[in-house]
Amino acid sequence: MRLVVIVMTFLLFVGIVGFVITNLDKKVTVTVWTTAYADLPLFMVVILAVFAGICYAGIIGVAEGAQTRLVNRRLFREMQRLETELNYLRTQPPAAPRPEPDAVQEAERPSEPPAAMPAPSPPVAAPVYGPEEDWPDDDDNPYSGGRAV
User: Fold this and answer.
1) Long-range contacts of 72-78 (CB under 8 A, 24+ apart)
2) What's the pTM value of the predicted model, to 2 decimals?
3) Considering 26, 28, 85, 118, which has the largest number of Cβ atoms within 10 A of its Cβ?
4) SS (H, E, C) the chain
5) pLDDT at 52
């Protein structure tokens, strides 16, 4: 992309220099609103028009760059907010298990008394395994669902 800009700038410069060389002796009258400027060199009018166009394009470029920076800043703040919320949700203890949304709910039978809930056991800090002789002999394949490796 940079090469394209350099080539286009070079071609514009060569075109302006060629125009100036071929129109050094041409004089024109320029009217701006109600004021008339007589006997202005044509190359000066063209150079002034090119300079005005460059300034206009520069102002538009700065305005669009500022808008892009503002949008990027807003999106960065939103991303930080969402990451903070995600980290907060990751650190929360799990809630009570919920049924799957598409699971069929069975109607409760009022005739049966509710089963007593066992007292909750304290959470364990590490996996607890039974005695080694109770472990299955499946070569401890980590994909078999056997003991952790």
Assistant:
1) none
2) 0.47
3) 28
4) CHHHHHHHHHHHHHHHHHHHHHCCCCEEEEEECCEEEEEEEHHHHHHHHHHHHHHHHHHHHHHHHHHHHHHHHHHHHHHHHHHHHHHHHHHCCCCCCCCCCCCCCCCCCCCCCCCCCCCCCCCCCCCCCCCHHHCCCCCCCCCCCCCCC
5) 94
